[in-house]
Please model this.
Amino acid sequence: MKLHLKIWRQMDAKSKGSLIDYDLDGIDVQMSFLEMMDTLNEQLILKKELPVAFDHDCREGICGTCAMTINGEVNGPVSGLTVCQLHMREFEDGATIYVEPFRAKAFPLLRDLKIDRSALDRIIQAGGFISANTGQTVESNTLLISHDTSESAFDSAACIGCGACVATCKNSSAALFTSAKISHLAKLPQGKQEAENRVLNMVAQMDAEDFGHCSNTEACEVKCPQGISVLNIAQMNWEFNKALFTKH
Model:
């Protein structure tokens, strides 16, 4: 298949960027989107041109690093996928494809399609962990956690931190990411001891990173590759208000 690509090129956050045109031919419909980008970069390198910078790692939909905005949609036209899981059969022969980085104030651009998502790491560092010494791992059947509770905690913990929720939100809110990290620990007995400080510190850090506020459009859940539920945001709000009441 033939493709006409319009890819955002920008050397760094201070430089002026623009969409650059590239034409590709002979693309296999079974290629992943990243394999198509690899093909483009191989051609650019042969021409002694600078390849397009983009993030990738596992290419199995687990790491969440391959974030791109494709034809104006976060991670492309198919909901529930990372870019490495998107295949070229989703596009028509001769299609024009626009490829841009995630756009959010809290995600400064590094180069081309690469962004800095360390703001999400700092939210985790603010409290997304258990610091109490829980001793050695015990036999799982001795932990009195119901199946429903453990499954719910696992569903929240499935967040891969890709930032798709931020990029697709009209306010660039990180509420879904932050709430997933807060909720999965709040649901388990190991996380109860530090629950109040955790939610207050993580929400404060989220606000300090210049993410926007959640306005409940639920676009984040639609584009989340792991299908993280917005019910986590309700849980975060409950934990936050409970912590404020207890503290004050």
